[in-house]
Design a protein that fits this description.
The complex is a heterodimer. Chain A contains 13 helices and 15 strands. Chain A is an alpha/beta fold. In chain A, strand 4, helix 4 and strand 5 form a beta-alpha-beta unit. Helix content of chain B is 39%, strand content 16%. Chain B has an 8-stranded mixed β-sheet with strand order 2-1-3-4-6-5-8-7, with helices on both faces. In chain B, strand 5, helix 7 and strand 6 form a beta-alpha-beta unit. The termini of chain B are far apart. Classes of the chains: A alpha/beta, B alpha/beta. At the A-B interface, helix 3, helix 4 and strand 9 of A face strand 2, helix 3, helix 5 and helix 11 of B. Strand 9 of chain A pairs parallel with strand 2 of chain B. The complex binds thiamine diphosphate and iron/sulfur cluster.
């Protein structure tokens, strides 16, 4: 036992959405702009209430989601940690600006509390239909980080993580939640300040005339000064050279596009967050995320109780897809089960990694109802 | 200001590491607006670091790349939303938005209305050439009825937007209209718009010979400047004209000038009260 007295963590009884707002503030978020939409609105409401009471905290309700993400990008360029939250239709509107965030390397966090779709779909029912959209939801080939959370504590933790990754890699990070996780109320612990890391973007220290805003660095991530801090440079959604000026020279175009992928792909170990639950001696492994991972965890435990060697790989990072972790469980298991509240958006990734080696079973449900532990248990014990 | 100082001034603000030449066609009015912007910033004595130019997409949007300020070239129609984020995050910055007529009133019409309603402390320069320049001459919300464009080959049937009326109704603090022919007045308006609190709009009539002029039987860019010279008249003179004589005339001048605090000022005043527990 350590001798130093541990400061007791503060405990609160919170909704998933409240935990997101809490996590954002702990991570240093001081700017929120957005447009209300169920089931994400509580995040916005809490930020409206809390931001004015923190130093430099700022909140704007914009006229639509396009404006919301535009303002978030502007604020981030001006040096703030900024976020927005929305749901399906709002995310569709934000797509052009997600791409702008990628190419201009602007750190920001977008929370998408998924609802059933397509279109206005099922506003208050859970679904996981926006998984591939989070990965590919803007035009052009690009890299992006997509995270998820399966309980209220994770909503808080993963929001902090989302801000850290956004700042570290200068990129938009999408946090995908489902309606159940966002609207479940649970007791959670607020970590003490020394118990979690807060990463802030690296700012340039060289004289402004030496600074090249999009120059290659060891990490592939150029330092980023705030607008108004003495480093004047051009930011554009056009493909640009290391100075930030538009270019169509193929060597410069290639260099930029490749670096945008490389800066994330060479740090997969840092970006890919997964949790393994009783996978050491597994026969049947479930791969799940969000509220379904919770059902799966119980199903796995129940299966163990009846003597089936079941395990769970819980994905907190959905993209870049955790290939190594998947391969590891595949090397042990005979069967992989992927339950999802869509017609197979992550199982597509699992099958790609698997490449025909083990048997992959999917459980797909698109009726606005949760996948229950019993449904997963049934499949685990039948294979 | 004498001739030599005039040319030297633009050099003081151009980006010397940018690969020139610029993209504007000969006879385009966009360069004159850039000149006016630079003269206004210089006259106000603003430090380069304290100025942020936010531009939309279109020929007008390219203006930002040439000048040595903090510059952000955004997405089509959304420049004002980025500017809102920048201004709210850094209220001490002078945020100036440059947009085309399509940019600001078609795809970005909603943002224009709400920036005015919100009274965000930014200055919007709307470069109105009555056409979509960059995409090759399709009609815009300000293409005059009856004139021709790539997408109104039989004559424009829709009515055109009046930017001044729109921004006045949406409650902008400062609304003015000028032209690139009347440069001295334009300089005054831009200077005043930047120094006025809250949301300021200057609609700037500017010719696009390449896309509008040729399709509408103008023989040269000079002829288009002459059109501005003759038809952009003071609102006083305009008001004195009979209804029938007003046809084709464009009233100019300052239409609205209020000094309500911008939303950023109000917001941080409220935040101070919250923080002090008042
Ligand atoms: C979302 C989106 N739609 C369409 C375009 C294509 N586009 C680029 S510039 C432009 C119009 C520019 O016209 P205007 O705003 O009047 O500016 P100008 O070029 O005349 O200065 C259009 C439609 C785009 N870039 N983005
Ligand atoms: S197309 Fe028109 S607006 Fe564009 S640069 Fe040429 S003249 Fe100017």
């Amino acid at each position: 036992m350590p001798r130093t007295k541990r400061v007791k963590r503060k405990e609160i009884f919170a909704l998933g959405n409240e935990a997101v707002a809490e996590g954002a503030l702990l991570a240093g978020c001081s700017f929120y702009a957005g447009y209300p939409i169920t089931p994400s609105s509580e995040i916005m409401e809490i930020m409206a209430q809390r931001l004015p009471s923190i130093k430099q905290g700022c909140f704007v309700q914009m006229e639509d989601e396009i404006g919301g993400l535009g303002a978030v990008i502007g604020a981030s360029l001006a040096g703030r940690k900024a976020m927005t939250a929305t749901s399906g239709p709002g995310i569709s509107l934000m797509q052009e600006h997600i791409g702008y965030g990628c190419i201009t390397e602007t750190p920001l966090v977008i929370v998408n509390v998924m609802r059933g779709g397509p279109s206005t779909g099922l506003p208050t029912s859970p679904a996981q239909g926006d998984v591939q959209q989070a990965r590919w939801g803007t035009h052009g080939d690009h890299s992006i980080i997509v995270l998820s959370a399966s309980n209220v504590q994770e909503c808080l933790n993963m929001t902090i993580e989302a801000f850290n990754l956004a700042e570290k890699y200068r990129t938009p990070v999408i946090l995908l939640l489902d309606e159940i996780t966002a609207h479940t109320r649970e007791k959670i612990e607020i970590p003490n300040p020394d118990e979690y890391e807060v990463f802030n973007r690296i700012v340039p220290t060289m004289p402004p005339e030496w600074y090249k805003p999009y120059e290659e660095t060891v990490r592939g991530v150029p330092p980023m000064p705030a607008i108004g801090s003495g480093y004047r440079f051009h930011v554009t959604g056009l493909t640009h050279d290391v100075n930030g000026f538009p270019t169509s020279r193929s060597d410069e175009v290639r260099e930029l596009n490749e670096r945008l992928f490389r800066k994330i792909d060479q740090f997969l170990h840092d970006v890919q967050i997964v949790e393994e639950i009783s996978t050491e001696d597994v026969d049947v492994a479930v791969i799940a995320y969000g509220c379904v991972a919770r059902s799966a965890e119980l199903a796995v435990k129940q299966a163990r109780d009846v003597g089936v060697k079941a395990g769970l790989l819980k994905l907190s990072t959905l993209f870049p897809y955790p290939r190594k972790a998947t391969e590891k469980v595949m090397s042990r298991a005979k069967t992989i089960i992927v339950p999802e509240m869509n017609m197979g958006q992550i199982s597509r990734e699992v099958k790609r990694v698997n490449n025909g080696q083990v048997s992959v079973r999917t459980i797909n449900k698109v009726d606005g109802q949760i996948i229950t532990p019993a449904e997963i248990f049934k499949v685990i014990t039948r294979v | 200001m004498n001739e030599i100082q005039g040319t030297q001034l633009i050099h003081k603000y151009l980006r010397h590491n940018k690969k020139f030449p610029h993209v504007f066609c000969p006879g385009c009015g966009h360069g004159i607006v850039l000149g006016s912007l630079v003269r206004s910033i210089d006259a106000l004595g603003l430090a380069k670091d304290d100025v942020c130019i936010v531009a939309g997409i279109g020929c007008s949007g390219r203006l930002a790349v040439y000048v040595d300020f903090n510059t952000v070239h955004t997405t089509h129609g959304r420049a004002l939303t980025f500017a809102t984020g920048i201004k709210m995050a850094r209220p001490e910055m002078n945020v100036i938005v440059v947009m085309g007529d399509g940019d600001s009133m078609a795809i970005g019409g909603n943002h224009l209305i709400h920036a005015a309603r919100r009274n965000i402390g930014v200055t919007a320069l709307i470069l109105n050439n009555n056409i979509y320049g960059m995409t090759g001459g399709q009609c815009s919300p300000t293409t005059p009825s009856g004139s021709f464009s790539m997408t109104s080959p039989y004559g424009q049937m829709e009515q055109s937007f009046d930017c001044v009326e729109l921004c006045r109704a949406a409650k902008a603090n400062y609304v003015a209209r000028g032209s690139v022919f009347h440069v001295n007045e334009l300089d005054k308006m831009v200077t005043e718009a930047i120094s006025n609190p809250g949301f300021g709009v200057v609609e700037i009539m500017t010719p696009c010979f390449t896309q509008f002029g040729r399709k509408n039987k103008y023989k040269s860019p000079v002829e288009m400047f002459n059109y501005l010279k003759k038809n952009v008249i003071s609102q006083e003179r305009y008001n004195d004209l009979s209804e029938s004589d007003r046809d084709g005339k464009i009233p100019s001048g300052v239409f609205v000038k209020k000094s309500e605090p911008g939303i950023e000022e109000k917001y941080y005043a409220m935040a101070r009260q919250v923080q002090e527990g008042i």
